[in-house]
Design goal:
Blueprint: E1 6-8, E2 14-16, E3 22-31, H1 36-46, E4 50-59, E5 62-71, H2 73-89, E6 92-99, E7 109-118, H3 123-133, E8 137-146, E9 155-164, H4 174-183, E10 187-194
Antiparallel strand pairs: 1-2, 3-5, 3-6, 4-5, 7-9, 7-10, 8-9
Amino acid sequence: MFTLWFSWGSTGRTILSSLQEHYLVITAVGADRPGIVNAITRHVSSCGCNIEDSRLAMLGEEFTFIMLLSGSWNAITLIESTLPLKGAEMDLLIVMKRTESQARPPMPSTVWVKVDVTDSPHIIERFTDLFDSHQMNIAELVSKTQPAEGNQPPQLYIQITAHSPATLDGSIIEPAFYQLCTELHAQGSISVVNYPQHEEKDGE
């Protein structure tokens, strides 16, 4: 025999605390210094949370750390209440938002592109618009500007990873991608991987 404990949330919904996994997205921003990542991850572990996914980047002089955490209701509530104080000690801006784990729809094609182009306004927008017009979901975007050196203008490096829905072949974007690179006088490369989709058969 076992007992299930219920708690009544502020939205009026009954939450099955002891069995349900909860999720929290955290963004931490602040001046970079040695040991800061270890301090954050140690605090996450001490609260009983697990890091499901994370991203780290240096933007200017600022350190940016994004994490998706999972844990019990008590663990997520604990880190929600304690991390802002921990962040204040480390002079970090902390943003938190509850989320849910959702099964992603089938994405049979993955597209990777790399672009090297002279930097100018709206360049990144042109490439994100290209993926949007082909109904592709951008999963990751990385960009970095190389300052001008001597007579060389500043250069922009872009990397994009995107997925196409089940109804589209990812390779349809290739001609439009190379056309855009030609228009912008950019050096670009694209790789497309199509994953086989297993259709359900009668009786299976």
